[in-house]
Amino acid sequence: MWVLAWPIFIELFLQFLLGAADTLMVSRISDDAVAVVGFSNQLFNALMILFTTVASGAGILIAQKLGSRQKDQARTIGMMAVTASTGIGLILSMILIAFPVQIARVLQLPEHLLPLGKVYISIVGGGMVLTAMMSTLSTVIRNTGNTKGPMYLALGMNVVHIFLNYSFIFGAFGFPQWGLTGVAISTLISRLLATVFLVIMFMYSFERRVMLREMFAVDTKLFREVLKIAWPLGINMACWVFSQLIIFSFISILGSKEMAARTYMNTLESFCFMLGSSIAMAVQIQVAHLFGAKRTKEAYKSAYRALGIGLILVTLNAFVIYLFGKHFLGLFTSDTEIIALGASLLGLNLLLQPGKMLNMAMGNCLNAIGDTRYTMMTAIISMWLVATGLSYVLGIHLGWGLVGIYGCMIADEYLRGILVFMRWRGQKRLRMAEQEQAKENSTRIPTPIAVDV
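^ that's the sequence the OP posted. Answer follows.
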């Protein structure tokens, strides 16, 4: 598991640096610019569900097929996933280029932020096709067991993005000083370069090289298998992203300072959970391989090992953030009101992270064995009733603000975490796989043994 996890951690850490550098540099423009970036990212995350659904389902099935030695099928699944995601990404790009202001108004972006929102949403959103390709290609490559390739690429992408950010924001090295527009262009260029290299890496990820002319081949049976796993995953992810988007719109009602504080805290939370997230992603790949290879007992134990390690790491990280978070917030902004708002959430973050680890580790393991409908049901119930519904009641209606909203997010993570933990303990899907394997073994005709006389 560690062989899979450490490159994923490095990749996530580099992505965190990318986000932190973005936030830090954008904060030099204005806190309003930070609020727009945070708002836009929530929107982009919501739209990404449309292609990450296919990518996630394909990734799990690729790992299972490779575990059961069905390598050609894994290759076909990878090609179909990339083609489908690219098509969805193209449609989203055209919509975001055409209607940035209308979309921002519907989601209640404050009126004075609309000019900045129009620029950022149209440029970065216009490159959604690149985001779709990057997400799917990285997922496919990681689930073949190659977690180092995306890691190295993330390193290069970070270097390019930070260099261009600095150049466009401050007008360094002879570049024009374009402010938030420059940040958007920098994001687009770095993603374009990363996509080119990921395509090359993908072509050599299987035993047989992937040819471009094969990319439009469709195997309906395999695609149905992908969708069987993917559609509940898609609803699960949609629940999370859209609930977060709605919660962010609640925060926008509180004001632009609250939006900026939430964006800064999101950066700190990402740092806090990186190790835990990498372990959760690694154990999903591992459990899917073991499940595909019919090694169900090893798959069962792997989940607990990952959970134990993850809980220790995220709790330690959350404690460090609790101790020094106020100083970290001061790196992003000098506004004492925003710092105070963010600091009021540090103790709650210490409670949030273990629940998030429990939920993600056990949920990923259920997804890895195809039990995606259960995680979907927990998401529908908990995210909408607890995370979203109660956030409005406590945060807006009763006036508890950000603290009330965070309390609801904590309750949601622990409720889902307990439910998926109990499901894994029951071993329902694992026992079904064992029974199917036993039945298959009992009906198999023994191979005659030739005896020399």
